[in-house]
Amino acid sequence: MIDPWWLVLGLALPFVLGACGALAPTRLVGHQLGWVVGLTVAMGVGYVARSGWPRMPPNQAHQWLAVVGLPAIALAAVLAGRMRLQPGMAWVVRAGVAVVLPPMLLQSYLRYHWSLGEAAAWLAGLSAVGLLGWWATLRSLRSPGVSGGEATPAVLGVTAGAAAMVTLLTYSLTQAQWSATLAAALLGGGLVTLAWRRRAGLTAAVDVGLPLTLAMVLLGRLYGPGMTNLHAGLLVAGPLLATVAHWPGGRWLLGMPGWRLALVRVAAAAVAAGLAVVIAAVQWFAAR
After folding, report:
1. Fewest CB atoms less than 10 Å from the CB: which of 123, 129, 173, 182?
2. Percent of the chain at pLDDT above 90?
3. DSSP letter string over 230-280?
4. Largest Cα–Cα distance of the chain, in whole Å?
5. What is the model's pTM?
6. Which of 138, 40, 53 is nearest to 95 (CA)?
7. Cβ pair 151, 265 in contact under 8 A
8. Separation CA 90–CA 138 (nearest Å)
9. At what angle do helices 13-23 and 26-51 cross, to 10 degrees?
10. What are the Cα distances from residue 85, in Å, to 76, 91, 127?
11. 90 with 204: CB under 8 angstroms?
C-alpha cells in the first residue's frame, strides 16, 4: 500500500524542491548550489517519507546510499563546480564518485556472491559506464549557441521515472518509490529549465542527478526480484541516446532550433526508457 503522506512528501514536495533548485537566484546561492540542495533535500525527504530514518550504522544498500552516498555525491558536485576552471581536477572528483559508489552499493555481492575476478570485472565495468555517461552528458551541455542542453534534467527525470515503473512492475515497491522521488525532483527542475530556458547550474544537475539515476537502476537490478539486464541496459541507454546530436552521424541535429533539439533529446531517452517499461509490463501481465 502507498501511504497518502508519501504522495505529498515523496512526490509533490520533491517536485517543488527540484523546481526551486532550478529557479534559485544565482546571486543568493550560486550557479551550482541551488540544484545540489534541491535534489539532495528532495531525496532525503523522500527516503524518510517511505522508509523512515535509516539505521545507523547502515546495513543495507539503500541505507548506505541515503546516509553516505547522497551527501558524498552532493559534496562532490559542489567541489566539481568550484573547480570549473580546472576541469581536470573536477573529473578527478567525479571519477572518485564513480569508483566509490558501486562497491558501497554492492557490499553483499562482494561478500557473498562474487569471486575476486567477478567483483573486479563488475566494479570496473560499472565505473566505466558511469564515467562514459557522465562525460557524454556534460559534453552535450557545452555546444556553443545550442540550447538543447536545457533538456538534460528532464532526460534524467524520464529515465528515473521509467526506472521507478520497471522496479514497481518487477515487485520492489520501496525501491520504486525512491526512484519516483528522484524523478519528481528532476522533472520539477527540468520543466523550469525548459520553460524559462535556464542554463545556470546544469552541470550541477548532472553531477547529482546522473549518479543518483544510475544508482537507482543498479539497486533495482541487483536487489529487486525481477529487473533483468535488458531492463537495466535500456534504462542506462536513455541518457546516452539523448546525446545523439554529438555522435558522428548526428551532428546535423545541432542545426535545429534549441527547443526542437531539446524535444529530440527527451524523446530519444523516452524511447529507450519506454521500451524497458513496456517489456516489464508485458512480463508482469504474462506472469499473472
Report:
1. 173
2. 56
3. HHHHHHHHHHHHTTGGGSTTTGGGGGS-HHHHHHHHHHHHHHHHHHHHHHH
4. 55
5. 0.93
6. 138
7. yes
8. 12
9. 160
10. 15, 12, 24
11. no
- Please report the pLDDT score of residue 5 as a whole number: 82
pLDDT digits 0-9 by tens, 99-145: 999 999 998 888 888 889 999 999 999 999 999 999 999 988 875 45
Q: d(Cα 176, Cα 184) in Å, to the nearest integer?
A: 12
In this prediction, residue 30 carries a pLDDT of 67
Distance CA 41, CA 272 (A): 28
Cell readout for 218 is 543498479
Predicted pLDDT of residue 217: 95
C-alpha cell at 108: 553483499
User: Which amino acid is located at 37 in the chain?
Assistant: V
3-class SS of residue 2: coil
Backbone angles phi, psi at 168, to 5 degrees: -65, -45
- Do the Cβ atoms of 197 and 87 come closer than 8 Å? no
